[in-house]
Design goal:
The chain has 396 residues and is of the alpha/beta class. The chain is 40% helix and 16% strand. Bound molecules: nicotinamide-adenine-dinucleotide (NAD). Pfam families: Eno-Rase_FAD_bd, Eno-Rase_NADH_b, Enoyl_reductase.
């Protein structure tokens, strides 16, 4: 099948198997170029390992630290007529590269929120690795079925207490428009916390600890975002921000529980980047486009792989986590530097459809978005017939 991008709103409904594999290979090259991560993790579980920050975490651990990795994700396989989701092809690419490098890699495709998947993964760790020394929690999902009650929770991206109006980027047309978002109502906050808060991270860690598969000195990390004031009504102070507050509460609770195995829990605040999850948030794509331009001009731009490599190499495994007052690792430090924020803040006030390409890196945003689905990568023949039904080796 010849595969081309089919974009519907903020999602691309096709993915290119070879392009995704190339994207993974490029990320691997970034890590290898930097050399081994001293004292890095050796047996790693990544929950949400197929795209975005979780995929890059898996790559950084495997290729920076020769780690055996277990990955959990929720993706759709392809067949002769339909492409798989990008995360499926990313994992095919990752596992092939891992095998070629002699690294253990095993993947689980299923609902990470369920008891069944937790049970299966723990069983596999038990049998194959004995224990894990790093657990990365990187799920981003619009809904979660609570395994105890069966209730389906849905997360929303809404401000709290007031209507929020600001600029946004229509990523289909490239026009800067105004968006008005109505505030959370009913149980929107509780629902969002139930999906994106810390409850499931804690359920995972409790189950892993109870099963005795956490190594002495284990570390666990989950990801958060803070960003500049202009995005606070929709992010930090919005429904998703409440979920992230809950995640931080969980971090403190896990820290206490993990002391039994001399372990440590972290929340890492990461940089705003184009991922499948972030492209769905109003206002954020415009901010990201402005941010990319400012950071590329300053030479400080990073993608998910540079972020995750730096997190492991310079913070978690270098005894230099440099936590902020709330105990969070701030790998968003370059994004939040006053120099960058001054530029972005000034341009935020000025940006419109006409000057978008001068003030912002809309092209970089679009290229980054397409790359998530395996499109626009150098060296990939997009006119060629490709096998869209490739299987993830460890799942076949
Ligand atoms: P993403 O959409 O790229 O990745 C989400 C992952 O979760 C995928 O591997 C997907 O398969 C998996 N997943 C979703 N539902 C699942 C389920 N039910 N069972 C198993 N797997 C499931 O998202 P991302 O942007 O990398 O986000 C990961 C984390 O990083 C989130 O906590 C997010 O808030 C945080 N973060 C993102 C940004 C950003 O700008 N993208 C910035 C800072 C922090």
């Amino acid at each position: 099948m010849i595969v081309s991008p089919k974009i519907r709103g903020f999602i691309c409904t096709t993915a290119h198997p070879e392009g995704c594999a190339k994207h993974v290979a490029e990320q691997i090259a970034v890590v290898k170029e930097r050399g081994p991560i001293e004292g890095g993790p050796k047996k790693v579980l990544v929950i949400g390992s197929s795209t975005g920050y979780g995929l890059s975490s898996r790559i950084a651990a495997a290729f920076g630290s020769d780690a055996a990795t277990v990955g959990v994700f929720f993706e759709r396989p392809g067949d002769e007529k339909k492409t798989a989701t990008a995360g499926w092809y990313n994992t095919v690419g990752f596992e092939r590269e891992a095998k070629a490098a002699g690294l253990y890699a095993r993947s689980f495709n299923g609902d990470a929120f369920s008891d069944e998947v937790k049970h299966e993964v723990i069983q596999a760790i038990h049998e194959d690795l004995g224990q894990v020394d790093l657990v990365v929690y990187s799920l981003a999902s619009p809904r979660r079925t609570n395994p105890k009650t069966g209730e389906v929770h849905k997360s929303v991206l809404k401000p709290i207490g007031e209507v929020y109006t600001n600029k946004t980027l229509n990523t289909n047309t490239g026009s800067v428009e105004e968006v008005t978002i109505q505030p959370a109502e009913g149980n929107d906050i509780e629902e969002t916390v139930a999906v994106m808060g810390g409850e499931d991270w804690e359920l995972w860690m409790d189950a892993l600890q109870k099963a005795g598969v956490l190594a002495d000195g284990v570390q666990t990390v989950a990801y958060s975002y803070i960003g500049p004031e202009v995005t606070w009504p929709i992010y930090k102070n919005g429904t998703i921000g409440k979920a992230k507050e809950d995640l931080e509460k969980t971090q403190r609770s896990l820290d206490a529980k993990l002391s039994a195995v001399s372990g440590k829990a972290w929340v890492s605040v990461n940089k705003a980047l184009v991922t499948q999850a972030s492209s769905a948030i109003p206002v954020v794509p415009l901010y990201i486009s402005l941010l990319y331009k400012a950071m590329k001009d300053a030479g400080s731009h990073e993608d998910t792989i540079e972020q995750m490599d730096r997190l492991l190499r310079e913070r978690i495994y270098n005894n230099q986590p440099l936590p902020d007052d709330a105990g969070r690792i701030r790998i968003d430090d370059w994004e939040m530097s006053p120099e960058i924020q001054n530029i972005v803040g000034k341009r935020w006030a000025e940006v419109n459809t006409e000057n978008l390409n001068t003030l912002a890196d809309y092209e970089g945003y679009q290229n980054g978005f397409l790359k998530l689905f395996g499109f626009g990568l150098d060296g990939v023949d997009y006119e060629a017939d490709v096998d869209t039904s490739v299987g993830v080796p460890s799942l076949s």
